[in-house]
Amino acid sequence: IIPNITEVMHFCHKIKIPIIASKLTILTDHTEAPIGLGNLGKLRPFLQKEGFREGSWGHDLFDTLPKIDFSIRKWSLSPFYQTELDHLLTALDCDTVILCGFTTNGVVETSAREAVGRNVQVVTLTDCVTSYSETLHEASLTNLGAFGQIITSKEWMQNHPEMVNT
């Protein structure tokens, strides 16, 4: 999915659509022990020891991706819960989110549900999302159809008003 996401990011830069990345962030105390994991620590026990700490490989975006405009630290599957995302979307006068990322059945579907609940339209780019399981991925794409448009990145870019009107 990385080449497709990269192409979408370049397209967004070209037509001046802000790129927002939400990054799971595990906070640690002075002893490097995780704090605030809650249920996530039970579901993903490895997070007790490593992963998604600021400045670590699991937290940083791939070096090959184009520059993002805004980075949101999130504490769970939701990029909205206890983050500044809702405020940022309002400040940017954004009425639509284009979803890319991992996992389709986790963060992507959670993002879509919460965006719709905030009266934000959702477009999920099918070739820019994935999961650990193809079965879960496909089931989530079906679910995501209830929350917005499901389309490939190529179709989205070709049909974007900036391209149609040129």
What's the gist of this structure?
It is built from 7 helices and 7 strands; from the N terminus they run αβββαβαβαβαβαα. With 166 residues, the protein is an alpha/beta fold.
Walk me through this protein's architecture:
It contains seven helices and seven strands; from the N terminus they run H-E-E-E-H-E-H-E-H-E-H-E-H-H. Helix 4 (104-117) runs parallel beside helix 5. Helices cover 37% and strands 20% of the residues. It is globular and about 55 Å long. The relative contact order is 0.15. It is of the alpha/beta class. The model has no long low-confidence stretch (mean pLDDT 90). The chain has a single domain, classed as Isochorismatase-like (Rossmann fold, 3-Layer(aba) Sandwich). It has helices spanning 2-14, 39-43, 85-91, 104-117, 134-144, 153-159, 161-164; strands at residues 20-24, 27-28, 34-35, 70-74, 96-102, 121-130, 149-151. It has a three-stranded parallel sheet with strand order 5-6-7. The chain has a two-stranded parallel sheet with strand order 1-4. A hairpin with a 5-residue loop joins strand 2 (27-28) and strand 3.
Break the fold down into its secondary structure elements and pairings.
Elements: H1 2-14, E1 20-24, E2 27-28, E3 34-35, H2 39-43, E4 70-74, H3 85-91, E5 96-102, H4 104-117, E6 121-130, H5 134-144, E7 149-151, H6 153-159, H7 161-164
Parallel strand pairs: 1-4, 5-6, 6-7
Antiparallel strand pairs: 2-3
Helix pairs in contact: 4-5
Pfam families: Isochorismatase
Organism: marine sediment metagenome
GO molecular function: hydrolase activity
Could you list some keywords that capture this structure?
166 residues; alpha/beta; Isochorismatase-like_hydrls; hydrolase activity; Isochorismatase-like_dom; Isochorismatase-like domain-containing protein
